[in-house]
Amino acid sequence: MTHKKKWLLFAPLGLVTIGAGACMVQWAGSLMQQRVPAKQWVAAGTAALVVFNAGMSLFGKGVAESVLYQLREKSGNTKE
After folding, report:
1. Would you tell me how many other CB atoms lie within 10 Å of the CB of residue 14?
2. Contact 59, 10 (CB under 8 A)
3. How many C-beta atoms lie closer than 10 Å to residue 68's C-beta?
4. Is 35 left (phi over 0), alpha (psi -120 to 50) or beta?
5. Which ranges does the record mark as transmembrane (predicted)?
6. Helix, strand or coil, per DSSP, at residue 76
């Protein structure tokens, strides 16, 4: 798989995952405000942060692949 294809896969996937994690953080906060037992909202918040951080990692991988793609294009070396 080329750097360009990886970039075009990881960057949008990361953004979607970041959005899902952010929504889950809000959901966990609403559970806390509803006075749900702490065990439930802490677990929900932990899961939300895991999803959010996974999205950050995926997006970061996309950025790295974008840089590698741009460096290869600039050098004229299009072989992978």
Report:
1. 20
2. yes
3. 15
4. left
5. 7-29, 41-64
6. coil
CB-count exposure of residue 62 (10 Å: 0-12, 13-18, 19+): buried
Residue 29: how many CB atoms within 10 A of its CB? 14
**pLDDT tens, position by position, 6-19:** 999 999 999 999 99
For 1-49, how does the pLDDT look when each residue is reduced to its tens digit (9 = 90+)? 999 999 999 999 999 999 999 999 999 999 999 999 999 999 999 999 9
Name residue 12's amino acid: P
- Asked if residue 79 has pLDDT above 70, the reply is no
Residue 39, token pair as written in the block: 């065990």
